[in-house]
């Protein structure tokens, strides 16, 4: 494959001149340094970017590969690195967070104020008996409290696991149970796009489902002040307890490998996996990538629009920008409320210089701007912007070009950052002062990341040939294990087919024949990417068949969707005769609601088709590739001779 877009997007000269990584020669030198001596390279950066209580003497311990350990005889504290250290450097009065609420109200906190809030919250957790190594589940809205909660856990060495506010009581229960959490931090309610979500009630429901007996307390922040059910002594109001605490809290110095957090993500089985990250290596990459990929400078105003419930909100809100002492915007709401000009207005109001969002948001804002000229970005003053970023899914060239021209005024480089929950931070990405851009390509590996495209046997493929994306060498912010399931960690990410040496990303990729630039071609496993949210097909199937009254069997596949990237398409066999017409529509609506309750609204299938059966081979295996064609509305060109019941395909092609 060779890129067809022949326009050249060179990095702007003034940006190159002042960039942290300036020019291609500087990039090549870093790559060469990392190649020649990986441990020397990562060790140097770990000393530069992270403050250690006890300096490490060993960079990498690979004696138990793939359970790699980084900087493991060093000790540090992530919250000290993100807060105290900045204050010691004279940044106490600098704004750390500009928070904009759903209704537009703005609150600012300085680094000194943030430290004080983190310390009080950390002391509150300690007063409730939370200790180093305990798990704390955080189910909070996008808020200063959300960031404070994460930092407070880090301060006392508790391991946080943030659950996205859009997940249901059932999904929340599963995560609380799997982590064995002793405490849940939540709020009375969440407000997004003018809509209220009863977080505290959902926590109550989750705990009532059982399996969460280790939870001793629920710490409840106030967002709306609405009355909520309250069970003393289990439930505790956060403001009263937190405000009564001392304003300082000595950090708990932890070993570099001490888990900083667990974050659940979907894989190719029914059960989400708790990705475990280690304090030292993760913090290094969070800070380093923030500095190099976003070229963050002291005067920048950074805005990452992700939710803290996803990894992007961890690395590029809660840790990376704070580790660099940056000023950032944190937003409670959604891009389309009160209208689809919200992002552009906020960039204008807060003089945002570096803006990081997802292709799905861009695509929906393009549609809105085309329909309603008053929310078009050209109606706003976006001249403060200097760098744009994209994350979470492939950005199609048309959306890239619009983002570049209409939002960035043609002058801002776009960093299309490829990475995953498991990788902790950017893996393949342009650097704004280095890379000539090609729309739709995440370009070249971050210095030190040895990404490659291989075949099924692990053999590296020549440029131009599509294959499997792997990382050939360990890196500091890599996943350490799957919580409670090291066997699954090994088989998912370091399978024997690749001799157990290479990290398997789960994506396909191809390198441009001339430039070697990477383009991600999508997941090669049963994971879908819907609006940048990762969803396992098996997870949705399990949710559907859990509706035992109605559903006999279900198969879920993805199909291309113009706005959401991929859409969820479910094929369902009911325990009653196949419904048609109005009845089919009614049952489909019921099943959608069912899935929303089991997992969350993000997992609702867009399309539900009913059949008397599913297409299976004679040995009973569901033929998913056929279902993919049916979902896509394509003519079936595959060989169907092994199919037990070919007539079923026509039935499944009918929309309900
Ligand atoms: O398929 C890739 C896609 O998102 C997956 C990772 O999802 P998650 O762990 O939820 O993390 C999302 C935020 C980092 C990847 O396996 N993906 C992520 N970024 C890109 C992407 N696909 C193409 N281009 C990207 N820039």
From TrEMBL:
Its cofactor is Mg(2+). The keyword Zinc-finger does not apply. Mg(2+) binds at residues 545, 551. This is Acetyl-coenzyme A synthetase. Transmembrane segments: none annotated. The lineage of its organism: Bacteria, Pseudomonadati, Pseudomonadota, Betaproteobacteria, Burkholderiales. Signal peptide: none annotated. SUPFAM superfamilies: Acetyl-CoA synthetase-like (SSF56801). Its EC number is 6.2.1.1. Catalyzes the conversion of acetate into acetyl-CoA (AcCoA), an essential intermediate at the junction of anabolic and catabolic pathways. AcsA undergoes a two-step reaction. In the first half reaction, AcsA combines acetate with ATP to form acetyl-adenylate (AcAMP) intermediate. In the second half reaction, it can then transfer the acetyl group from AcAMP to the sulfhydryl group of CoA, forming the product AcCoA. PANTHER family: ACETYL-COENZYME A SYNTHETASE, ACETYL-COENZYME A SYNTHETASE 1. It comes from Variovorax defluvii. Belongs to the ATP-dependent AMP-binding enzyme family. Gene3D superfamilies: 3.30.300.30, N-terminal domain of ligase-like. Keywords: Acetylation, ATP-binding, Ligase, Magnesium, Metal-binding, Nucleotide-binding. GO terms for molecular function: ligase activity. Residues 92-475 form the AMP-dependent synthetase/ligase domain. Residues 539-621 form the AMP-binding enzyme C-terminal domain. It comes from the Bacteria. It catalyses: acetate + ATP + CoA = acetyl-CoA + AMP + diphosphate.
């Amino acid at each position: 494959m060779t890129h067809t877009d022949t326009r050249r997007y060179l990095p702007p000269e003034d940006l190159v001149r002042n960039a942290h990584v300036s020019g291609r020669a500087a990039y090549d030198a870093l790559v060469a340094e990392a190649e020649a001596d990986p441990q020397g390279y990562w060790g140097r950066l770990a000393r530069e970017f992270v403050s250690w209580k006890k300096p490490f003497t060993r960079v990498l311990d690979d004696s138990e590969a793939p359970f790699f350990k980084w900087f493991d005889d060093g000790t540090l504290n992530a919250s000290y690195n993100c807060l105290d250290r900045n204050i010691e450097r004279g940044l106490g009065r600098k704004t750390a967070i500009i928070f904009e609420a759903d209704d537009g109200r703005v609150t600012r906190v300085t680094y000194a104020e943030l430290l004080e809030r983190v310390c009080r919250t950390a002391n509150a957790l300690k007063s409730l008996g939370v200790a180093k190594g305990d798990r704390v589940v955080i189910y909070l809205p996008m808020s200063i409290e959300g960031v404070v909660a994460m930092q407070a856990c880090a301060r006392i060495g508790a391991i946080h696991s943030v659950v996205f506010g859009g997940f249901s009581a059932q999904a929340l229960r599963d995560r609380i149970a799997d982590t064995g959490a002793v405490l849940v931090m939540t709020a009375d309610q969440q407000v997004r796009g003018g809509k209220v979500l009863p977080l505290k009630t959902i926590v109550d429901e989750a705990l009532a489902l059982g399996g969460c007996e280790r939870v001793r307390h629920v710490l409840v922040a106030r967002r709306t002040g609405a009355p909520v059910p309250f069970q003393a002594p289990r439930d505790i109001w956060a403001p009263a307890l937190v405000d009564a605490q001392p304003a300082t809290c000595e950090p708990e110095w932890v070993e570099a490998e001490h888990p900083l957090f667990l974050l659940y993500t979907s894989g190719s089985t029914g059960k989400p996996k708790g990705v475990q990250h280690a304090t030292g290596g993760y913090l290094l990459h969070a800070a380093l990538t923030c500095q190099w990929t976003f070229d963050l400078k002291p005067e920048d105003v950074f805005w990452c629009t992700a939710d803290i419930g996803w990894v992007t909100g961890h690395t590029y809100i809660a840790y990376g920008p704070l580790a660099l002492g940056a000023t950032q915007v944190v937003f409670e709401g959604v891009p389309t409320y009160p209208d689809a000009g919200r992002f552009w207005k906020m960039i204008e109001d807060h003089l945002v210089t570096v803006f990081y969002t997802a292709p799905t948001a861009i695509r929906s804002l393009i549609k809105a701007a085309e329909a309603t000229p008053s929310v078009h970005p050209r109606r706003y003053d976006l001249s403060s912007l200097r760098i744009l970023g994209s994350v979470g899914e492939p950005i199609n060239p048309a959306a890239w070009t619009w983002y570049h021209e209409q939002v960035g005024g043609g002058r801002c480089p776009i960093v299309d950052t490829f990475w995953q929950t498991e990788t902790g931070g950017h893996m393949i990405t342009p650097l704004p002062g280095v890379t000539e851009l090609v729309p739709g390509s995440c370009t070249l590996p971050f210095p030190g990341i040895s990404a490659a495209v291989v075949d099924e046997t692990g053999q590296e493929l020549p440029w131009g040939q599509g294959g499997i994306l792997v990382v050939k060498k360990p890196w500091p912010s890599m996943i350490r294990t799957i919580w409670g399931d090291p066997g699954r960690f090994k088989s998912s990410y370091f399978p024997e087919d690749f001799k157990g040496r290479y990290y398997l990303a789960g994506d396909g990729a191809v390198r441009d024949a001339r430039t070697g630039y990477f383009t991600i071609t999508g997941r090669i496993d049963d994971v879908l990417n819907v609006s940048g949210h990762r969803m396992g097909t098996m997870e949705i199937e399990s949710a559907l068949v859990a509706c035992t009254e109605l559903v006999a069997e279900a198969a879920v596949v993805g199909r291309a969707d113009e706005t959401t990237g991929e859409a969820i398409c479910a094929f369902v066999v009911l325990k009653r005769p196949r419904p048609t017409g109005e009845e089919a529509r009614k049952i489909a609506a019921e099943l959608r609601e069912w899935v929303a309750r089991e997992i969350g609204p993000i997992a609702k299938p867009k399309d539900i088709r009913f059949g008397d059966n599913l297409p299976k081979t004679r040995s009973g295996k569901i033929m998913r590739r056929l279902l993919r064609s049916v979902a896509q509305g394509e003519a079936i060109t595959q060989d169907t001779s092994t199919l037990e019941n070919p007539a079923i395909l026509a039935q499944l092609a009918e929309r309900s």
